Amino acid sequence: MYAVPDQTGKLVVVTGANSGTGKEAARRLAVAGAHVVMAVRAVGKGEQARAEILAQHPDARLEVRHVDLANLASVREFAEGLQADRTPIDVLINNAGVMAPPTRMTTADGFELQFGSNYLGPFALTVRLLPLVLAAASPRVATMSSGLANYGRIRFDDLQWERRRYSPNFTYAQSKLADLMLTQHLAGIAAQRGWNLISTAAHPGFTRTNLQTAGASLGRDKPKRIPYNSLRMLPSQEVGLGTEPLLYAATSPDAVSGGYYGPGGRFGLVGPTITVRPPRRARDAATAARLWAESEHLTGVALSTEAGRP
User: Fold this and answer.
1) Are 228 and 216 in contact (CB under 8 A)?
2) 226 DSSP assignment
3) pLDDT band at 211 (very low <50, low <70, confident <90, very high)
4) N or C end of the chain: which has fewer CB within 10 A?
5) Are 98 and 117 in contact (CB under 8 A)?
6) What is the mean pLDDT of residues 296-307?
7) What share of the chain is helix, strand, coil (3-state, %, to 5)?
8) What is the 8-class DSSP label of residue 152?
């Protein structure tokens, strides 16, 4: 098991912290001494998750705040709330996401749901919070991607999947490739501007959480049951081990800016954390820069020429 280094005195923001890898990351970071902001869309579920962690770890410092990454106004409100506190953010963990809704759905701002929730929302949140992140002594941004990013493509002529036939899986893959490009480009910006920011990414392999079922059930009257029996040939792991690449990316002194971390076992789906080589498309600096510029245009959130001031 990966041992999270001492986080005493640090403020960590974790999106999607009410379940799965987000909840496990919040728990282990709080146990290590961090003050964790559990950023969640459903506050009631966030409070329940907080209570469950506190029942095991009464001294954990946890607070629940609302953010809906599928709504840019909510992202702005959440960021402004943290800015009003004026407390530096040591670690921002972009973990929340939605996976493979069966039909094309849109965010409050009209973006395709997966591209909007998994990428544009975290992009806007990251840029808005950069001033607070850069105010920390050793700041870090860790973003959750997916092994499916290997199959993703950034098609600038149809980022929202309005012209092509909607594909739940390929749309998800696009959003997770975009997350890797966000990580790589932010690392490049930090190097160019002389920031001591570390920008990292991780993927959980095949970790058993509600992500696979929650997305697939969107728009349905009844939750969809994923036939895990049909996936028996694939190795899978519990959430504790599946969260470790993200925790490593967020806290390890050995993690490097631009680094990508994931399971090192069978097929890259399970096992202890190792350094993973990002797919070739994620390492395309020109495409990443173009995607960043397009994201600024779509979200209306841009990085100014001044360090970290959106």
Assistant:
1) no
2) P
3) low
4) N
5) yes
6) 84
7) 45, 15, 40
8) -
**Cβ atoms of 205 and 269 closer than 8 Å:** yes
User: Given CA atoms 26, 5, 181, 125 in this order, what sign does their dihedral have?
Assistant: positive
Nearest to 127 by CA among 46, 72, 205: 72
User: What pTM was estimated for this model as a whole?
Assistant: 0.92
Please say whether the beta carbons of 262 and 274 come within 8 A. yes
Q: Give Cβ neighbours of residue 98 (< 8 Å, ≥ 6 apart).
A: 70, 113, 114, 117, 118, 211, 214, 215, 218
pLDDT at 267: 84
Q: Which amino acid is at 254?
A: D
- Tokens 């004026």 sit on residue: 86
Nearest to 159 by CA among 49, 292, 40, 254: 292
Other C-beta atoms closer than 10 Å to the C-beta of 241 total: 20
**Rounded distance, CA 58 to CA 177, Å?**
38
Q: 303: closest CA among 293, 109, 75, 91?
A: 293
Of the two residues 218 and 294, the one the predictor is more confident about is 294
Residues 6+ apart with CB under 8 A from 123: 182, 295, 299, 301
Among residues 2, 151, 166, 172, the one annotated as catalytic is 172
Q: Quick check: 310 and 303 in contact, CB under 8 A?
A: yes
CB 242 within 8 A of CB 53: no
172 is catalytic: yes
The residue among 95, 69, 57 whose CA lies nearest residue 211 is 95
Strand arrangement, sheet containing 11-15: 61-66, 35-40, 11-15, 91-94, 140-144, 198-202, 260-263, 273-275
CA-angle at 91, arms to 246 and 126, nearest 5°: 95
What the block records as the tokens of 240 is: 């504790």
Q: pLDDT tens for residues 62-105?
A: 999 999 999 999 999 999 999 999 999 999 999 999 999 999 99
Pairing of strands 273-275, 260-263: antiparallel
User: What are the φ and ψ backbone dihedral angles of 143, each rounded to 5 degrees?
Assistant: -120, 130
